[in-house]
Design a protein that fits this description.
The complex is a heterodimer of chains A (139) and B (385).
Chain A (H helix, E strand, L loop, with lengths): L1 E10 L15 H20 L3 E6 L6 E3 L8 E3 L8 E10 L2 H12 L14 E4 L14
Antiparallel strand pairs in A: 1-5, 1-6, 2-5, 3-4
Chain B lengths: L6 H17 L4 H18 L8 H18 L4 H8 L11 H11 L6 H12 L4 H7 L4 H15 L10 H14 L7 H15 L3 H20 L19 H15 L6 H14 L8 H15 L2 H15 L1 H7 L10 H11 L3 H14 L3 H17 L3
Helix pairs in contact in B: 1-2, 1-3, 2-3, 5-6, 6-8, 6-9, 7-8, 9-10, 9-11, 10-11, 11-12, 11-13, 12-13, 13-14, 14-15, 15-16, 15-17, 16-17, 17-18, 18-19
The chains are: A alpha+beta (139), B mainly alpha (385).
Chain lengths: 139, 385
């Protein structure tokens, strides 16, 4: 099994096919979309492939260390960050092919006019922790 | 005073208890759920009050749980039939029962991850939570994975002896791909393989057990306190577990004497040759190359040929090692790490540094990536010095 992160973006991903912002949908379309996402997560839980998922608010700031005894420096929020992550789901699946298949399904969530959004999702494999490995010795 | 709970003893009783329920007519899936509930109850109750007859206790509790669950579903007639049977502890588990469980849980219709999870629960006697923790997934996800696996094998017929190779493969995965949490899966894999070896006389089962012991023996020396990888060549060999090595070597020799070589025996033989060298410089690389040749004939796996190239590099020099890499796909995991190592030995530090850095970018394990990054950094910061 291998874990993958499915990243959903507010911005920074290529334009979706059905590219209408959510606030221009009907309330029913919003509900249908949310239901699709919840059902998707429930199906993954049922298939034993769900690890976790969450959504992020769009507002964020930058923070950095500013030296001993000083409070951290903050900057932002910026209205126009290039890349903005909306949320994620972590899955634990048998193969890369299965991860791609699931990402495709998630991207089919309905949007405006009840039609699939075809939004671009980012798929990233996890770096595993180190297990025992009897096949390879490190050099 | 509460008695310390002997969890290993408790776990070792689980497959026998499960077999008794199945022999009494309970279907596997329901019986397994009931045994899991009895196990959780035992983990709760036994530390204060361990029963005199632990197995009898487990059978009684599991059977009661099974009847409770059945009551809500099955017909009245069936329930009365079952309730009429007196719950006895029954005879000691027969070897066949244990084997049957191993085969069922490693059934070829299951995905490797499902077979591993089901084996750990039904044969290993681990709780769903312990298994979930070991594979870093939520308990609900692991519970679903196990119940789906049970549905998959529910129609499986095992009137034919199963294939030992499938069971061995599953145990190998448990040993290699678990993490250390509440339960140490490598130790658990050794326990389950040892138990299998007493139930079936098979040289590859013995080979796998030897392989596991020989690797486990080196484990204290494999990682530094900060979690970083310590390569075999620089491990502190005084930290190897010599008793475990001796046991592994003895098991391996008995298996090899039967002249039915298999890949696990060959892998164990390589591990034994490493274990046999008091210092890295005394490693018998020529013999190791010969074992890799055997292994290549048995499996023809590119990973084996990659490891063989390292051994050739030690036996005949880095140029020979690099030549042995010819024909292998550079996209193979760890190809770059091996090539980098051989190039450095050959004196080409610039190429080695570049390859280590690229290998780090492509690594799929965290500790491995860090190790490769350090190798690249070491060469980059001292190359001109």
């Amino acid at each position: 099994m291998a874990k993958y992160l499915l990243l959903k973006h507010y911005r920074g991903n290529p334009a979706a096919v059905n590219d209408v912002p959510m606030d221009k949908w009907t309330p029913e379309e919003v509900s249908a979309h949310i239901k699709y996402m919840n059902d998707f997560a429930a199906r993954l839980e049922e298939s034993g492939e769900f690890v976790s998922g969450d959504a992020l608010a769009p507002e964020g700031i930058w923070v950095r260390y500013d030296g001993e005894g000083r409070p951290p420096v903050t900057d932002g929020p910026f209205a126009e960050t290039k890349d903005l992550i909306a949320g994620w789901m972590i899955i634990d699946v048998d193969s890369h092919e299965r991860a791609v298949e699931l990402a495709g399904e998630l991207s089919a969530a309905p949007g405006a006019n009840g039609k699939p959004i075809h939004e671009w999702l980012e798929l990233r494999p996890f770096l595993h922790m180190a297990p025992t490995d009897t096949e390879c010795e490190m050099h | 005073m509460r008695n310390a709970l002997n969890e290993t003893l408790l776990r070792s009783l689980i497959p026998g208890v499960l077999a008794i329920l199945v022999r009494r007519g309970a279907d596997f899936a329901a019986a397994e759920d009931a045994v899991q509930e009895a196990l959780i109850e035992a983990l709760r109750a036994w530390p204060g009050d361990q029963p005199r007859d632990p197995k009898g206790w487990l059978v009684t509790v599991a059977w009661r749980r099974f009847l409770d669950a059945t009551r809500s579903e099955a017909s009245r007639r069936r329930r009365e039939d079952l309730a009429d049977q007196e719950p006895e502890a029954g005879p000691a588990t027969s070897i066949d029962d244990t084997l049957w469980l191993y085969f069922l849980c490693a059934h070829p219709s299951l995905s490797p991850a499902s077979a591993v999870a089901l084996t750990l629960r039904a044969v290993g006697g681990l709780t769903t939570r312990q298994i979930a923790d070991a594979y870093l997934v939520p308990e609900a996800t692991m519970a679903q994975r196990i119940s789906r696996a049970k549905r998959t094998v529910s129609g499986a017929r095992l009137d034919q002896p199963g294939d030992v190779a499938t069971v061995v493969r599953v145990l190998y995965l448990v040993f290699n791909e678990g993490y250390t949490g509440d339960v140490d899966l490598a130790t658990e894999a050794i326990r389950l393989t040892r138990q299998l070896a007493t139930a079936i006389d098979h040289p590859e089962v013995a080979g796998l057990l030897a392989l596991m012991l020989l690797h486990q023996a080196r484990r204290p020396a494999r990682t530094a306190p900060d979690g970083s990888i310590v390569p075999l060549a620089v491990q502190d060999r005084t930290r190897w577990d010599t008793a475990m090595i001796a046991e592994g070597v003895e098991i391996l020799q008995a298996a090899l004497a039967r002249d039915r070589l298999g890949e696990f025996q060959a892998q164990a033989a390589i591990a034994a040759l490493h274990a046999d060298a008091p210092v890295a410089g005394e490693t018998d690389w020529v013999q190791i190359v010969e074992w890799y040749d055997e292994l290549t004939e048995l499996t023809d796996s590119p990973v084996v040929r990659l490891n063989r190239a390292v051994a050739v590099g030690e036996a005949d020099g880095p140029r020979a090692g690099l030549a042995a890499l010819a024909g292998l796909d550079p996209e193979l995991p760890r190809y770059l790490a091996v090539a980098a190592y051989l190039h450095e030995r050959d004196g080409d530090r610039v190429t080695a540094a570049r390859m280590y850095a690229e290998a780090a970018r492509k690594a799929s394990h965290l500790a491995e990536r860090d190790h490769l990054t350090r190798q690249a950094a070491r060469l980059n910061t001292s190359a001109n010095g």
